[in-house]
């Protein structure tokens, strides 16, 4: 998996790994991302690198996969029929999601050679955060936090079903892990790490691509292991 990196400008203290959305790429997204400015007074730090000089920014690039709906190759973390309704033909998502999660775990491990896992934030926008969230369930021990924008939870309806038959949080999280990846979760309990990880979710109320209802549903599902 190729990545675009914006290096820290002072002592490296944290890394943010941030995944772009569908039909985009890491360079395009990074360029747009760093155009954002805070509303500070003139002469004061306004861009993200200026505000957080110790952060190394890492933007992985999604693979080019065939879209079954549009019958063309496009940049996407996994194939999906509809971002408006992620549950529609959800079966086409599984294989690409597993492959992207495996590749992202390698990016995370590479960053762990610079800073500890506790100093790595994992985030993304739209399909990028859906992939980051699945990675969190696959290998979510001791991240500094998650940052999700305008996104959804993969297979949220199945997670809802699992909630009704799971005896406790640990059983639920293990079942979600198995649903995503087809095998049992690691022996080490998942819930203490998931409970202790801060999660920021942001979503535009008038998002015309990913309805905010998808974000609300993700929030509601994620609240369960934290209650």
- Care to count the β-strands? 8
Q: CATH first level: which class?
A: Alpha Beta
The largest β sheet comes out as: 6 strands, mixed
Helix/strand-derived category reads alpha/beta
Gyration radius, rounded: 17 Å
Query: What number is the mean pLDDT?
Result: 87
CATH architecture descriptor name:
3-Layer(aba) Sandwich
Broad shape: globular
The helix/strand series, from N terminus to C terminus, equals EEHHEEEHEHEHHHEH
User: What is the percent of helical residues?
Assistant: 25-40%
CATH overall fold name: Rossmann fold
Describe what you observe in this structure:
With 227 residues, the chain is an alpha/beta fold. The chain has a single domain (3-223), classed as Alpha/Beta hydrolase fold, catalytic domain (Rossmann fold, 3-Layer(aba) Sandwich). The protein has eight helices and eight strands. A six-stranded mixed sheet has the order 1-3-2-6-7-8, sandwiched between helices. A two-stranded antiparallel ribbon has the order 4-5. Helix 3 packs across helix 4 (127-139) and helix 5 runs antiparallel to helix 6 (169-181). The longest helix has 18 residues, at 94-111. This is Phospholipase/carboxylesterase/thioesterase domain-containing protein.
Concise structural overview:
Pfam families: Abhydrolase_2. The protein is α/β, with parallel strands linked by helices and 227 residues long. The chain is built from 8 helices and 8 strands; from the N terminus they run ββααβββαβαβαααβα.
């Amino acid at each position: 998996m190729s990545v675009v990196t914006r290096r820290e400008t002072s002592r490296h203290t944290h890394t943010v790994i941030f995944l772009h959305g569908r039909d985009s790429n890491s360079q395009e997204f990074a360029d747009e991302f760093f155009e954002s400015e805070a509303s500070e007074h003139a002469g004061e730090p306004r861009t993200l690198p200026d505000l957080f000089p110790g952060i190394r920014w890492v933007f992985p690039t999604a693979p080019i996969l065939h879209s079954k709906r549009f019958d063309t190759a496009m940049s996407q973390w996994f194939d999906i029929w509809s971002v408006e309704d992620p549950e529609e033909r959800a079966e086409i998502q599984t294989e690409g999601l597993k492959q992207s999660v495996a590749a992202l775990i390698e990016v995370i491990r590479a960053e762990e050679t610079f800073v500890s896992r506790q100093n790595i934030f994992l985030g993304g926008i739209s399909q990028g955060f859906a992939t980051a969230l699945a990675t969190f369930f696959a290998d979510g021990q001791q991240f500094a936090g998650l940052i999700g924008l305008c996104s959804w939870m993969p297979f949220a309806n199945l997670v809802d079903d699992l909630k009704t038959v799971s005896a406790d949080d640990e059983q639920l999280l293990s079942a979600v892990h198995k649903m995503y990846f087809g095998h049992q979760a690691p022996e080490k309990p998942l819930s203490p790490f998931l409970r202790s990880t801060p999660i920021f979710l942001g979503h535009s109320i008038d998002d015309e691509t990913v309805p905010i209802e998808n974000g609300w549903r993700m929030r509601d599902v994620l609240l369960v292991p934290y209650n």
